[in-house]
Design brief:
Layout lengths: L1 H38 L8 H23 L7 H5 L2 H36 L11 H4 L1 H19 L10 E3 L2 E2 L1 H4 L6 H4 L2
Antiparallel strand pairs: 1-2
Helix pairs in contact: 1-2, 2-6, 4-6
């Protein structure tokens, strides 16, 4: 069991590195292009669009699984927040399970896209690298997200989650971690 925890922690660090690197790369490419174009009147960063596009694809699709792990994905929680504990627990299990299924279906269809790019042997216009290098992050991201949502489903069945609902494997529900009472001042804008 310790080996799986070590692998999970190592994979989380790898995800954090990839996401951080992608965001930093986007910043460097966009800012560098603006400086080259506006200050030096140069088109030296002609490849910035392709590199930025690749980094955005990686950050977006690899970030889905990381957000699921941390329980930081977008959610509509109006009914969920006011539901009693057992209803929230059931809702979270169903939501995570259905989302995992959707992620696996999307991984399948996006893998078809990657296969199409491989078969077409298309190249990017500036860097002339195969287009499938960019699109390979899409099915990988969906696959990792599907696995993470399955893990989120599983953790809500464990004894660790007896008195807590987990939004992610690393994130307990905020309704369970603090005793929240809505006051009039909380409702004011």
């Amino acid at each position: 069991m310790k080996i799986f925890q070590w692998i999970d922690k190592a994979f989380m660090k790898f995800e954090e590195f990839i996401l951080s690197f992608a965001i930093i790369l986007i910043s460097i490419m966009v800012i560098g292009n603006v400086i080259a174009r506006e200050v030096f009147k140069s088109g030296a960063f002609g490849f910035y669009a392709e590199v930025s596009q690749f980094a955005i694809i990686v950050a977006t699709f690899m970030g889905i699984g990381y957000a699921a792990r941390k329980g930081r994905h977008i959610s509509m929680s109006a009914f969920y927040d006011f539901a009693p504990f057992i209803v929230r627990k059931i809702m979270m299990i169903i939501i995570n399970l259905v989302t995992a299924i959707v992620m696996f279906v999307m991984a399948y269809f996006s893998y078809s896209l990657v296969r199409y790019h491989i078969d077409s042997q298309a190249l990017t216009s500036t860097l002339e690298v195969p287009v499938y290098f960019m699109s390979i992050a899409i099915p990988l991201g969906f696959l990792v997200a599907g696995i993470q949502f399955l893990r989120n489903t599983y953790i809500n069945f464990t004894t660790k989650a007896k008195d807590t609902v987990y939004l992610g494997t690393d994130a307990a529900d905020y309704n369970d971690t603090e005793n929240r009472e809505i006051k009039q001042e909380d409702l004011s804008l």
